[in-house]
Amino acid sequence: MIRTLIVDDEYLIRYSIRHLVDWNALGYEIIGEAENGPDALTQIRSLHPDLVLLDINLPLMDGIEVCRQLKELHIPTEVLILTGYDDFKYIQSCLRLGVLNYVVKPLEEKELTEALLKAKQTISIKKNLLPYSGAAPMSPKTDETLQSLYENINQLLSRSSRPLYLSLGEIDYLNREASSSGAQSVRIRSALDAVERFSRSQTFPLLCSKKNNQLVLCLAAELEAVRQTIPALQKYLQAQLGLSVSFGLSAVPLSAGQMGKCLEIAQEALSKKFHGETMPFFAVSEGIAQNTWPQPIR
After folding, report:
1. Which residue of 135, 198, 209, 232 lies most exposed, with the fewest beta carbons within 10 A?
2. Treating both helix axes as pointing N-terminal to C-terminal, what angle do 88-96 and 63-72 enclose, rounded to 10 degrees?
3. 2-7 and 51-55 as β-strands: parallel, antiparallel, unpaired?
4. How far apart are CA 113 and CA 20, in angstroms?
């Protein structure tokens, strides 16, 4: 069983967490609760939990400081952050401290279950509970991934008569920082969530998905609007999450078979960025002005 400590200053939230999911069925055991930062550190030292569900906003010592001390003390406990929508500006600090993932409050059964199942994989491997077969982890086949992306584009085209553009986004320091795969996953998920919120304020359709550790945007708008929207999105990601995200812009393919080529073009545009830059980079691939696909793909 994965030993779990719940840390939140509100009793009702701790109570709801205890009863929101079937912990035993998921392979978890709740071993204690804490209502502030110092109490959390004391219990972590004494109980040695495998996982801590940690609220960011705590009295006496906030969740960020708790994570910082866990890192400084080299305590191997994994942390699942509990955060509200208004706390996304603090997520970046937690990411740099190696948190495993985060869940947005108010908590829902499905989201918490998914987060716990993902955490279980990481923790089980650390505890050597899973046998090692020597095989590489399973990952989606490239053509299946591209087919899925293309189907999303096709759905977007069926709802819009505007031209479409594809943009590939990359968090600038994601591959250069010495960070865990869990922290990288949280960064990507945070960016996806932020893009979804950003898209609600736009006057044209904007879809976002991910491929490996990159964002894939599909924008149904005139080229000039796209040129204005991507820098606005970069500023939004910087302000909301503290993330510098560079983008390369390409055409959208007419068929699933052309998806790989368009991603290569977007990647080529993206590769022109200067890796030492702290400001996000935006490049447009050559010949993109000719990209006009006004009719839905058949």
Report:
1. 135
2. 0
3. parallel
4. 9
- In this predicted model, what pLDDT tens digit does every residue of 249-280 receive, in sequence order? 887 665 556 677 778 888 888 887 765 445 67
Strand order in the sheet with 164-171: 206-211, 214-220, 164-171, 245-251, 282-284
203/201 Cα distance (integer angstroms): 7
Annotate 260-285 with b (16+ C-beta within 10 A) or e (fewer): bebbebbeebbeebeeeeeebbbbbb
pTM of the complete model: 0.50
Read off the amino acid at residue 191: A
Dist CA 96 CA 172 (whole Å): 14
CA 7 to chain centre: 23
pLDDT digits (tens, 9 = 90+) for 152-173: 666 666 666 677 788 889 887 6
Strand partners, 215: 169, 210
Q: Is the peptide bond before 106 cis (omega within 30 degrees of 0)?
A: yes
